[in-house]
Task: inverse folding
């Protein structure tokens, strides 16, 4: 909580009245539009970026019976919401890790907890993991570009994250997609 409060205070200090926070817990996705409308009315400016500090804090109970179904539907609904409202949406979510606490294994595109719909819906997927005394920021998915990683340093006294090295890009190729069977080559069409 202290880290979050300090991060918000830092953003407000840097961007002034261009940063608004909403402390209402358990919002439903359909209520986010009301929050944006209120913010735009208050500031007289269009909201361009929304940050949800944890996907699990949204009220998703009415979306599905299972957590997997709730997260899957929420991910898709948030993508649609962001497109309709023309806002960038930054959503933080937990990852599942196979190793022990403190494991310094890099994340994969499938590390998001509860649902594959998170990586499916995202245009960008970033991961952050600890490697010895450094942090590594990974670009796990970039729908229109390359992935890569960058080594960062976390200063515990100022709660700042600083870039240590350049971003190392990886070759990225779009995944191969199978042709639908009705259009497959070499088979008979039945006509």
Result:
């Amino acid at each position: 909580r202290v880290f979050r409060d300090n991060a918000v205070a830092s953003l407000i200090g840097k961007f002034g009245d261009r940063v608004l926070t909403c402390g209402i817990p358990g919002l439903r996705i359909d209520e986010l539009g009301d929050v944006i409308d209120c913010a735009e009315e208050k500031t007289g400016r269009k909201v361009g970026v929304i940050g949800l500090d944890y996907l699990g804090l949204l009220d998703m109970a009415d979306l599905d019976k299972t957590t997997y179904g709730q997260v899957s539907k929420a991910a898709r609904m948030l993508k649609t919401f962001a497109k309709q409202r023309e806002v960038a949406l930054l959503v933080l979510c937990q990852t599942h890790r196979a190793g022990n606490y403190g494991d310094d294994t890099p994340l994969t595109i499938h590390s998001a907890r509860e649902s594959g719909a998170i990586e499916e819906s995202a245009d960008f997927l970033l991961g952050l993991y600890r490697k010895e005394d450094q942090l590594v920021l990974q670009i796990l998915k970039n729908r229109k570009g390359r992935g890569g990683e960058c080594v960062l340093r976390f200063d515990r006294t100022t709660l700042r994250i600083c870039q240590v090295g350049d971003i190392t890009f990886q070759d990225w190729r779009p995944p191969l997609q199978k042709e639908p069977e009705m259009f497959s080559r070499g088979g008979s069409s039945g006509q």
The radius of gyration is 20 Å. The CA atoms of residues 179 and 186 lie 12 Å apart.
